[in-house]
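*** Fold description ***
***
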Amino acid sequence: FYQFDPIVNGCQSARTWAHAVSDDLVHWKDWPVALWPDTPYDRNGVYSGNTFVLNDGSLGALYTGNVDGHRETYGIFARSADAGLTWTKKSVMDDSERPNPDSPVHWDGQVWCDGDLWHQLIGGTTGGNEPRGAAWLWASPNLEHWTLQGNIAPTIESNGFWELPYLIPLGGRHVLMVGQGNPYWIGSYDRKKRLFTP
């Protein structure tokens, strides 16, 4: 899946998720566009997110539904039972639940399951007069009801707004990467306290 702005009836569409498949990761075949901006919650674009396999073998996706950039977004859960050809969608994170007025409720989420809980790491900012980048952690028992856990990296002083936060286990440690300028930090992640220490 990748971000794609197709031309439809001579006009550029709002952002979609295109879809390509491969048997060998070298030769790729385009499939039809997977996710179109066709709901009130993603009408100005199907922005970035993650896909994952659910317990029943179906394909899930969580992505940023763009309405007005950082000013109005939604977390959209989509599910496909036919390998990503067709999808059903549901808005599961409302713009009113944002961590602070300057940080969207959903922006570039990384998704993983840990025990009985699903987690999402969402890009954003601490907001206010001296904003720093933030990686907001959310948790859910069912991919539909999400509770904000907090910023996992409050000790990192990196100005601005973080996009595409990813927390990756590597060699007994963790790496936190963000897409705004592509910085990364190597450290440890405390699963109980939900804190990353560089």
About this structure: The first strand starts at residue 2 and ends at 4. The two ends are 31 Å apart (CA to CA). The mean pLDDT is 95. DSSP finds no helices and 17 strands in the chain.
